[in-house]
Design goal:
Elements lengths: L1 H21 L8 E9 L1 E2 L1 E2 L2 E2 L1 E9 L4 E8 L6 E8 L8 E11 L2 E8 L10 H4 L3 E7 L10 E8 L5 H5 L16
Antiparallel strand pairs: 1-5, 2-11, 3-4, 5-6, 6-9, 7-8, 7-10, 8-9, 10-11
Length: 182
């Protein structure tokens, strides 16, 4: 009888831990509680340095939501954000465009719910956290500062390489100039 009570107690404890862990965002939240965060590799444009974070959150429908917070942006600014194939060292093609960074109250923010790439390939949260990609935030879509980066990070399988960029041991390759939407 003691063994059965012990088994039931352990089982109830395990169920309560799983239940608490899966609802970390609250009952009405669109998120599961699963997420990964990255420190953005800082950018510098004309003496202005930026810093921030990028978080990929799992939504209850299985999609991933990419949230970017960028400090040090110019008041009223909007900056394009691209998800690229390959790591920051590659001249990766644009996989898709994310919601532009928009400055509000001194902080640049972007939220993008991502369900597919520009070529129609479906994409889930699980796909995003294992994606062979990187994200770059540009100063402008076109013009003399289109290659100036305000922040960047590797994601998915490339994320382990971020430390070398954060320490200044590696340089980020500029985007290819063919990143206009079709």
């Amino acid at each position: 009888m003691k063994e059965i009570l012990k088994y039931i107690t352990v089982l109830l404890l395990a169920v309560s831990i799983v239940a608490c862990g899966s609802d970390s965002e609250g009952e009405d939240s669109p998120f599961t509680g699963n997420e990964v965060s990255f420190t953005l590799i800082p950018g510098e444009v004309e003496g202005n340095t930026t810093s921030g974070t990028l978080t990929i959150k799992e939504r209850t429908d299985g999609q991933g939501e990419i949230q970017i917070v960028l400090n040090g942006v110019i008041q009223g600014a909007q900056h394009p954000v691209h998800l690229h194939f390959g790591d920051l060292e590659a001249d990766g093609l644009v996989a898709t465009y994310l919601t532009q960074i928009a400055e509000v109250d001194g902080v640049g923010r972007s939220n993008t719910i991502l369900s597919q790439l520009d070529d129609g390939t479906p994409l889930t949260y699980s796909d995003l956290i294992t994606f062979n990609g990187s994200i770059k935030i540009h100063f402008e879509e076109s013009g003399p500062l289109e290659d100036a980066l305000l922040g960047a990070t590797n994601i998915g399988i490339n994320s382990a390489g971020n430390e070398a960029y954060l320490l200044g041991l590696k340089d980020i390759t500029q985007c290819n100039n063919d990143f206009q939407r079709n």
